[in-house]
Amino acid sequence: MALKDQTPTETLDVLGRVCPYPLVLTKKQLEKMASGSILKILCDAPASAEDSIPRFAEKQGYEFESVKLEDKGYWELYIKKS
Amino acid sequence: MATKRLGFIVRSLPYKTEASRLAMTHAIASQTVEIYLEDGDMVEPVVCFIGDGVLNCLKSQQAMKHYGITSLEQHVKNGLLLDLKIMICKEDIEKLGIKEDSLIMDAEDIGGETKAQIVPYSEIQKEMDSVDHLLFC
Fold this sequence. Notes:
heterodimer, A: alpha+beta, Translation Initiation Factor IF3, four-stranded mixed beta sheet, 2 helices, 33% helix, globular, B: Hypothetical Protein Ychn, Chain: A, 31% helix
């Protein structure tokens, strides 16, 4: 099942924050979460949503999905901590 | 696998210079560079305010009112929110007659858990001796 169709363990709202805050806050939140849990991130900073957070997830080997909500002007990012 | 420790030593006044602002933004941004490094390599910044630089840590700054820019107060709080190690020189705040309750010691109002530390200069000197790179601002 896609990550976006699962109930997230936590939701992190970083709307209005620009790089590097979304990435660092994401890392900080994931450190507190258990393996197997899913973090949903609301982010409207393109550099973070399209580059740094996906790159971080890939490097950590975490499952990642991104949904761009064109009408709302932000992304919903999903990371499953492994 | 290695951790590179960066020491930002802030000696500049908060306004009419970009120095202390750049120190804070670089220290905060340095926490993201891990994504570009080899696996296991990390960067750990520490920010030390000494001399006139301790004035960056004062509460109730009026940067937006007078200069139209965001205050260093918010930068310091953001640093604490992101668990940045922030040290303030004890001797220098005493020399300037600044009390601890005039300083930004936490960022609880924005969800921060880390607190700033007021330490003797000898502690900052130890920190400066232990880091891999020193940056004076």
